Amino acid sequence: MLFKLSSIAASATVLSRTILPALATLYTDPSSLPKKSYDYIVIGAGAGGPVIANRLSEDSDVEVLLIEAGVNNAGLTNVEIPFFDVQLSPLKAIDWNYTTTSQDGLAGHVIQYPRGKILGGSTSINYMIYSRGSSDDFDRYANITGDNGLSWNALQPYIHKHEAFSRPADGHNTTGQYIPSAHGTSGPVGVTLPNFPLGIDSRVIATTQQLPNEFPFQEDMNAGNTLGIGWTQNTVQGGERVSSATAYIQPYLSRSNFDVLINTQATKLIQTGTEKGVPAFRGVQFATSKDAPLYALNATKEVILAAGAFSTPQLLMLSGIGPTDELSRLGIKTVVDSPDVGNNLHDHPLLSNVYEVNATGTVTTDDLSQNSSFANVELDLWTNEKQGFYTMAISNHIGWFRLPDNSSILKTEIDFAAGPTSSHYEFLIFNGFVNPFGESVSSGHYLSMITAVTSPSSRGNLTLTSTSPWDFPLINPAILTSPLDIYVMRESIKATKRMLAAPAWDGYVIGPHGDLANATTDEEIEAYAAKNTASFNHPLGTAAMGPPGAPAKGKGVVGPDLTVKGVKGLRVVDASVLTYIPAAAPQAAIYIIAERTADLIKAANKDRKHRP
């Protein structure tokens, strides 16, 4: 889901700035690539691909190619400014511009499904929330794969390795806002606390003191237990967005063994032979457009597919790896019958609950939307000093909560939360008006209590529409189709009302806005949710992890080392491998698992070198 924020004045929006010419290892034309083969070819520069490409190219004897369908991220000021996150998509040049099928759980709505088409992928257009998930989330990955290396404790070296926690841009005292020992300080991914104070910050903290049983304070949501309200941690550093591109690609383009090809889409995986009767897929076919020439390259060691939750299963199926019935429907020859490819698609349902407020004496994001002079002042402040409103990501506070243990729904439905430290729903507390369906306002002040179902049980799928890689697949995340998810969303909305009834909000909150004002009974709240809910844009699970062994229904597409079952020479390292969505924004989990997988690939390469 990409919110519609009341539009920032056009005069305050800058698309790009002058940058130096790209270094020699960033290519836009496949014919200009200097090598005829590479040791590793990585497809996709979202959260996972750049981690793999960067870490493998640390070995100067290894040649690595990273292929990205989108544009260069460097110099795009709208991408760099944290506050502009809500304006980067959908329907922009750096967005794939996907849409869903008609959603039964959302009153039949077809919703836009933004994914980044740019170096950094969706880490270049997301809301920059850095939330790892709970210890239970990772322990569940270990349990379902049978590999303890995916457990919370075993992943601690990679949690610290990828992160560079730093002080916020405004330099405020952060004592009590996070736990330093839970964070890395020398990794490539910059993380920080809110860079700009808001007038509602003190009200949020006061609520945790006035209603501690339901809304307790959480010092650090990334220390293993997420529950409670705490200060949001964001992938922002020095007042600018941090993406996988700024962290793992741009600073390393001078490596002679690391080539990056942009504006180029992978169209098929090529079978390069068999090894002991097992098909090997070490070739990649690609082109710059539907009508452009096709190119092909082979990897001497591995192809790493990191094209995301939509393109990864599409490429697998187009290459003959997927459910036989789905492939035969389009006349695609099955090379490997892998029933789970394209299935298990799920996401966090998300809803913006808007309240009208009395903001006298304070400044909100609505003031930026409604006052072009103020917006220009803030843009100048960011441009010259990397300070001010524009350093702010979507929310200064975030909360994670569980249903009461005696909730009626938990007696009839399976609890999809990973464990007692993992939430059922979350709050993002946004100091202004946001709406996913295009409504905007030209006056007034608002508070948006954004709720999301964090452990959903609804499951959808992705299917092919044709044998052309240029045709989008059918995407059905089946949002809000399970009784559990409907119940959790309803209860999360009711929880926002209880939170805002705390004394801390006296004199500030006037009342609910729009459809929310007429949603009082459970039935009315559920109808309101169906009409106004969209996606948090966290799709995953379409090439899920499972235990080692042959592909089979419910057993996953990849093993715990992320090698594709039933083939040689191919791995998947992106959101599609996450069998269950973490109760968190998934970018951190992908960074962490990708760091681990890079070491597994290095170890496998070392083993091959030493075999007689």
UniProtKB/TrEMBL annotation:
Coiled-coil spans in chain: none
Keyword Lyase: no
Cofactor(s), by name: FAD
Glucose-methanol-choline oxidoreductase N-terminal domain segment(s): 116-139, 308-322
Alphabetical keyword list: FAD, Flavoprotein
One of the record's GO molecular function terms: flavin adenine dinucleotide binding
Family: Belongs to the GMC oxidoreductase family.
PANTHER family per record: CHOLINE DEHYDROGENASE, MITOCHONDRIAL, GLUCOSE-METHANOL-CHOLINE GMC OXIDOREDUCTASE
Protein name: Aryl-alcohol oxidase 3
